[in-house]
Design goal:
The protein is mostly helical and 239 residues long. It has two domains: 1-66; 77-238, no CATH class. 82% of the residues lie in helices and 0% in strands. It is built from ten helices and no strands. It has helices spanning 6-32, 36-76, 84-97, 100-112, 119-143, 148-161, 167-180, 183-199, 205-209, 212-238. Helix 1 (6-32) runs antiparallel to helix 2 and helix 7 runs antiparallel to helix 10 (212-238). The model has no long low-confidence stretch (mean pLDDT 90).
Length: 239
Amino acid sequence: MVFGGLWDTLLSVVKALLPLLGLFLVFQFLFLKLPRHYIFNLLKGTLLAVAGLLLFLQGVRIGFLPAGEAIGEVLGSITRKWLLIPFGFFIGFLTTWTEPAVRILCDQVEKASAAMIRKYVVIYAICSGVALFVGLGMAKIVYGIPLTYIVVPGYIVALVMLWFSDKEFLSVAFDAGGVATGPMAVTFLMAIAIGVSSAIEGRDPLIHGFGLIALIALAPILSVMALGFLFRLKQWKKE
């Protein structure tokens, strides 16, 4: 049903936004003293945010999650399971490309760097990194690779790359790891991973289905720092 669980979703949204609104009002009365029209605009914006989050989360509940799990179950039943790896690469790139938070981050990077770092360069770096690690996540499910075998070496490489990447890219890289794990990745890719692992014999969805979001969070860190390393090499050549 379209409205199934709508009340629970609304309560979750209200509980999430009320503390933020309350914190602002405390600062307003004690320190900010902003004009009255600003407060009205804030309240209207809060209502719009509640409506938007309600519609989105309800759509996730009745649409994205069931669809993702259904797609995953179909994919998990195919004979040539290695095909899940290129599929993961494709769907990882496509999902990250449509992630709103990724585009906002890249816009801010271009603005803050005075267009020295083009937003589409960062977008391609993030999307390519996520695509590679979603494909790796599918390989983890298909071949039963433990998550620690991927995550631990990945963060070790990230720590090493801190010394070689351009410093302007370091903070962007770690922020990119957060924005890449946005609503599209969590609601769609995780549902597919759970569906695939539940359809493959001997794969526990709790062990093999989850963990994909950790890989998605790690992927942009490595790919953006690699981009920073390339920029640093370019500067060395000029010098």
